[in-house]
Amino acid sequence: MRNKYIGIDLTSAVAHMECGMVIALKRIISALPCKKNDINFILFCTEKNINMYDNLKNIKIEVLTTDIEYYHNNINFIDVLHSPFNKVDRKIDGALSLLTKYDLIPPRFINDFREDQIVNSIESCHEADYILTSTEFSKRDIHWQTDIDENKIEAVYLPVEKSILGVNKPNVDLSKPFLCYPAAGRAHKNHENLFKAFSKIKSDVNLVLTTGEKNVANNKFNYLEKLTAEYHLTGRVHVLGCLTEEELNYIYSHALALVYPSLSEGFGLPLVEAMTFYRPILCSYWSCMPEIVGDIGIYFNPKDPDCIARTIDDFLNSEYIVNVGSYDRQLEKFKKNKIGEEMIQFYSQLVYKSKILNLRKKRNNEIKGMLAIKHIMIEKELYSKELLSYTEEFVLLMDCSRLLGTNNVSGISKYIFKLFDVLSSKLGSRFIPFYDENARGLAKDLDIRTRFVLNNDKEYNLYHKGYAINLAKSISKNIVYFSPYHPLPKLRDKDFSYVITIFDIFHLTRLDIYPEQNKYFTNDIVKSILKNDEVVCISKHTATELIKYQGYKHHVSVSFLLSMNDMIEEKKYKKKNLPQILIPFQNDPRKNFRLMLESYYEYLKIGGVNSKLCIFGKTNLLSEDDKKLINEINKHVNVKLVLTPSDIDLAKLILDSSCFLYLSELEGFGLPPLEAMVGGCASIVLDNTALSEVYDGWPFKLSSNSSSIEVAANIKKLLHSDENYIVKEIEKVISKYTVENFLNSHLSAFYEAMRRKNGN
After folding, report:
1. Verdict on whether the full-model pTM lies above 0.90
2. CA angle 373-377-383, nearest 5°?
3. Taking every annotated instance into account, which residue ranges of this chain make up the domain Glycosyl transferase family (predicted)?
4. In terms of DSSP bridges, do strands 450-455 and 458-464 run parallel, antiparallel, or are they unpaired?
């Protein structure tokens, strides 16, 4: 997987101010661990504010200047773009957008905020793919006010540790004992109720407030000065301007306690800062305060000035002793290292989700091969929190009508038997095989609920289609209808996902080989595919040809086959004193039987007399010309004809053979050479159609226009090659075509069909 990149957008107006949100962001960035972290961070700044963030650089964090044009034209490597200040100002194609939203206070105080502020605070949440907030309370509140899925909202506390700087007394008379409340003069900070309470307390104690710069233009400062005069607290209430960190340290270290009457907070940073100085905390029991302060808080009703006053008086008149152990336990929640690890974990999840989403987009437009299938299965295992339960609960309806036909030894029937075995083992009762009495080539058998078919002495039970569908619906509402051979139904159930297998479409594309009347073999199957169906093709060649023939993109998964003959045991290639050449006969012009026969005849001329030939298949259909050439060959070597061998007989033939000739010119996959290799018999194939990809890298693959003389030379080359060399080359080929890959490629096709059906 390529490098992981998180971009942090620091180009907004807020990013140019030394405010609380910027301080919080810097703390988070500083907490990110450099070691054991495979994520790279890029802070996108402007020329005006780059100096504010330049000191955050390290081996994992880069600070760059950028502009809007650069965003759109050059940034294509970012997995997640983080907008840390309440609004998504930029987006990057292909990157997830993350918004930090500390709170949704404006909608809760509609009389104190402008209408546009209230609307924007909610709408901004919907602009992002994911939201980061600082408390579980805020997470629930954002979900409740916006109806955004809670799985899209993550709560991570801010990192807070005691300042390492010293103290510096502000330029104000603080000789009397005082309580402190560092908060801007916004309405939800509830200063007025605090002033009312303070006017009622009997103890001789002062109150220190911090807010913005002390100047006429600062309405918040003026508001607090006005309240001071209104409640006759001049001399007892000190309204300070913006303090340095050292001055704020002095306030915390000398205050009797922090008093915090806020009505709503996203986090409440002063609460934890006071905690680091082991100050008593008198605070509101509303909003996130109980979550942040825990059992060390002294709580009051912030709406009741009398309650606030009583709480302050009770505290001042008591001999309150700070429980240091309780404070330390609470502070553990906000440790820098802990928060840094949590942020890396969260960022990593987002990077993974970003890559998954991009892969999904590609999967919707590209043929899905082994790598895509691997990603789908990883996604299913690791991304389960966001996946719907259908991946675990779905029921598979599989059309097995082909098994009740007349040709159970064909490759397609064996494919269905193999699917039956692996899917029933994996899915258990969620696998429901059925037969359709109206399927082509199937005798009408009404009112038979269950039928069975035998294969290699194993019984396979099939349900009647109507009964199977009702059974599936009684088990789950997530149902995949899978046809591994027959057309998909014209009448569709709107709640089903549909999947079909296509082996090849040569009957449609190669009319030079197959006459027009043979089109029906494939045409009705291809025509049954709708645009949202998932199509399983047994090679990329078939997938490409299907898309080209249909003229539009299908949703295609490639599921390579594996040996379908269970009688073939995996054996290593061994040289034989009298090697047997094995040639399959099929009465199909594309299989090139004549070329294989002529190639062996040529091999006899270059030393092949110390070998023997075996021809198997429907040998009763051999042409007269072929019989003549076989008789000629039989004058020099022993020729054995085997009529339609059983699986176990074919396995014995492969075990006794050294070379399997397979010179087909058109293949949707080309399984026989693979099965021969599994049994320890090396194959010779042509480099064409699907054979090119299935046997990629196999050294005994010839160009598609090879002559019989060239094939004969290759037979000789194979039989004279080093035994260990051939063993290793065979292993390279067959290792790709495993039961696990076969199963997973089909499961991933089912997951993809359900994903689209469920709108993911």
Report:
1. no
2. 130
3. 169-326, 570-723
4. antiparallel
